[in-house]
Amino acid sequence: MLAIRLTAEPDRLDTVALPVRPGASDDAPAEPVPTAVAMPDGVAEEAAALAPMARFAGRAGEVRGQLRPGRTPARLLLLGVGEGDEAAWRTAGAAVVRVARDETHVTLALPAGVSPEVVRGLVEGLLLGSYRFRLGTDADAPALAGVDLAVTDPESYERAVELARTTARMTRLARDLTNTPSSVKNPQWFADQIAEAAADLPGLRLRVREPEQLAAEGFGGILAVGGGSASGPRLVELDWQPADARTHVVLVGKGITFDTGGISIKPVPAMKLMRKDMAGAAAVVAATLGAAALRLPVRITTLAPLAENMVSGAAFRPGDIVRHYGGLTSETTNSDAEGRLVLADALAYAVQELKPDLLLDLATLTGANAVALGTRTGALYSDNDQLAKDLLAAIDAAGEAAWRMPLPADYVEHLGSDLADLHSAPTQGAGSVLAALYLREFTGDLREHWLHIDMSAPSWCERDDAELTRGATGWGVRGLLRWLATLS
What we know:
Elements: E1 3-7, E2 15-21, E3 31-32, H1 43-53, E4 63-67, E5 75-80, H2 86-99, E6 105-109, H3 116-129, E7 146-150, H4 158-179, H5 187-198, E8 204-209, H6 211-217, H7 220-226, E9 234-240, E10 248-253, E11 255-259, H8 268-271, H9 279-293, E12 299-309, E13 320-323, E14 329-332, H10 339-354, E15 358-363, H11 368-373, E16 378-382, H12 385-397, E17 402-404, E18 422-423, H13 431-440, E19 450-454, E20 460-461, E21 471-472, H14 477-484
Parallel strand pairs: 1-7, 2-5, 2-6, 6-7, 10-12, 10-15, 11-12, 14-18, 15-19, 16-17
Antiparallel strand pairs: 2-3, 4-5, 8-9, 9-12, 13-14, 16-19, 20-21
Helix pairs in contact: 2-3, 3-4, 4-9, 7-10, 9-14, 12-14
């Protein structure tokens, strides 16, 4: 991961980036932002003269370069910071690491009196925008190894950098887990990765249930979905329990390591990216690891039901009745609606055995998420107005996006079944809404303390955009960590 250094005496000045903001009016030229640490003589004046000549607008993430042979710095970058808030600096950080990918180091001069929030956003942008996932040798790997942040008082920003570094590291972990091909990634592999990551963090407890334990305890949904694969299902339970915790949160994440659709098989175009169908599990696990690394004073139990939904003679069939943890039954007429079956088990277990204060689940659950909200926004569901408001605020502050969706009472009738307690995948009504209503049936006494996010769409990005890179986004890690930090 890119090395970030705070310094009041920058000594690596081959490439320098100076912040530039839009002009005071639409027809006014962009102008450099006065920096906390003085740059070499003439550099600030040159930047001021260059901005209008280059028709530089100062928009967040806009970058222009100027070569200066024989002088210091040898390369000057004008870096647009827009309104200068945390989000704009996050975008700017991601932009500068892409433009300077062939440099060894960059020194970025920050404005005088810059807030810790701005530094946090900048560092997150630098570390997330520089993310790459490759298996094997990467002949095109960027040369950029480090970024120096020039500020007057480095110590005052150390906590902001630590928060950003941990958040980015865990987001990158979620991206790695999600990007990994399913030829490597099966339920046991995923559980092993969690165990390896948790081993470095004191205070975490891990339990992994294998098929025998799942059968003995009645996790029928996880067993049904994973029954068609040669790689058996698992249930990961990861617990962070600091002594000063006053709130207990259970996080549940869908962990389908590959989804063929089962007997209700997907067409090839819809199947080829189904290695990402465990992005919810990756997000909640990474957020929990991040909370432990930051020593957040909130108890977190994370449940990751892991299964591979495959086609075989042992696969569950459309029309089967599944008995979930705790006894509720589901009629499942579409084996491609498998995620809600494993989540139902985990939710029921959380309610009956863990009895938390708050219960949240994240899942790449439906294609309807993208139909309703586009490719960057998660669909958030809850009957708890304050919980929804607080989480939406944290998600927004973290640079992610979600929109609260309704849980209409007139849709509930569609969940009725002639054979079972519930129909898991009715065809009437809006698909993402019905999936949320189905999951709510397993929340018991915690119905008013439960929140669900369908994050199928924002879990993946088709092109580089600000701090997002093509492929898995790690969506949810940043928002969850912001929110968990408020529960102390």
